[in-house]
Amino acid sequence: MPKTQLFHFPLLLFTMVVAFAAAATPVALQFKEAPQFYNSPDCALVVDKDRESGSDGEPSILCSDRALHVAMTLDTAYIRGTLAAILSVLQHSSCPQNIAFHFVASATANASLLRATVSSSFPFLNFYVYPFDDTSVSRLISTSIRSALDCPLNYARSYLADLLPSCVHRVVYLDSDLVLVDDIAKLAATQLGDNSVLAAPEYCNANFTSYFTPSFWSNPSLSLTFANRKACYFNTGVMVIDLDRWREGDYTTKIEEWMELQKRMRIYELGSLPPFLLVFAGNIAPVDHRWNQHGLGGDNFRGLCRDLHRGPVSLLHWSGKGKPWARLDANRPCSLDALWAPYDLLQWQTPLALDS
Questions:
Q1: Which pathway does this polypeptide act in (predicted)?
Q2: Overall pTM surpassing 0.85 (yes/no)
Q3: What average pLDDT score do residues 51-64 get?
Q4: Residue 147 and residue 85: Cα distance in Å, rounded?
Q5: 82 touches 121 (CB < 8 A)
Q6: What are the CB-based long-range contacts (under 8 Å, 24+) for 50-55?
Q7: From residue 156, how far is each of 31, 152, 196, 316 by CA, in Å?
Q8: How far is Cα of residue 349 from the mean position of the Cα atoms in its chain?
Q9: What does the pLDDT look like over 172-216, one tens digit per residue?
Q10: Adjacent-strand bridge partners of 264
């Protein structure tokens, strides 16, 4: 990893050009600068100001054990959602200056553009962008029920233990299509017990067998995969991960082995989720459902509106086909999209004319 550092870009009006897959022409997006957020008086000092740039012999906040580490992917297609998610994390945190963001971007992406976009909205954010060589995982990806799920960056969460420096021992992974309405420190404090590698809300009422094909369940060997586990569905868009345990157990290799088998015989249909279920389901630490009110983007086909699950809410997650920014732009929002809108930093957008 390159020398750890903080990014402090000058305050500029910044415009990003985004070409959405579903759009006929590229779109220029300009985002507002978010307010700066400060720690409450009882927050611990994570890094002294004269040490925060990663000077020799002194770790920056990006390597601090006292920091709260958050990992997300970063790309132009979801940048609007990512910025909203960052804002929601900071706004509801009691110690926002103690949060370190670790962004993973495709190695072929314009990293300078992505960094500048984040910094223009959050000039004082502690973050680093890690390049992800998506060619390494592309050979393992099988087509799924929705093309968006086949993007190699969706699989980056399986490689966090390799991408992030070894000084980062524990991380909260978040998807880009969500907002928090509670202090992320509560989620980060989840106890993993003596053996669990990760924690996430489990949904044991879901039809677990539906996540795998009849070929999987009819195979005498494969069908025994969950024999000694109480396997339940969990959504991989919100996870607390012990990276040390992940590295020690070489779980990236375990996930890749299932992906290699999927290339030989089709055992699932749903992108990057099933390998996680195969490796971890039944062995994760539970998290209260309030921390992933998922499915607000509807199903993977039509993206129809959905209601919240019953119970309290700390995190709203628009997993599924429908994204709140797209539905708001199309003037066809679902009622719950209004809960995402206050975190939208979009200043304006305009289609760009293509040269004839």
A1: Glycan metabolism; pectin biosynthesis
A2: yes
A3: 62
A4: 23
A5: no
A6: 52/6, 52/126, 53/5, 53/6, 54/3, 54/4, 54/5, 54/6
A7: 26, 7, 20, 22
A8: 24
A9: 999 999 999 999 999 999 999 999 999 999 999 989 999 999 999
A10: none
The label of the residue with tokens 């699932």 reads 268
Q: How far apart are the C-alpha atoms of 107 and 131, rounded to whole Å?
A: 5
pLDDT at residue number 353: 52
Average pLDDT score over residue span 285-290: 96
Q: Are 164 and 243 in contact (CB under 8 A)?
A: yes
Give me the count of residues in the chain.
Answer: 356
Alpha helices in the chain (DSSP H): 79-91, 111-121, 135-138, 160-163, 184-188, 214-218, 243-249, 251-264, 273-280, 324-329
Q: What span, in angstroms and rounded, lies between the C-alpha atoms of 316 and 304?
A: 16
Q: How many CB atoms lie within 10 A of CB 94?
A: 13
Collapsing DSSP to helix, strand or coil, 44 comes out as coil
Residue 347 tokens read as 């200043």
8 Å CB contact between 187 and 240: yes
Instruction: Please give the average per-residue pLDDT across 263-286, as a whole number.
Output: 93
Amino acid at residue number 70? V
Task: Give me the residue label for tokens 């630490």.
Answer: 285
Q: How confident is the model at residue 111 (pLDDT cuts 50, 70, 90)?
A: very high
**Can you name the residues that pair with 127 across neighbouring β-strands?**
101
62: how many CB neighbours lie within 10 A of its CB? 24
Q: Kindly compute the dihedral angle of the four CA atoms of residues 188, 191, 197, 198, in this order, to the nearest 10 degrees.
A: -50
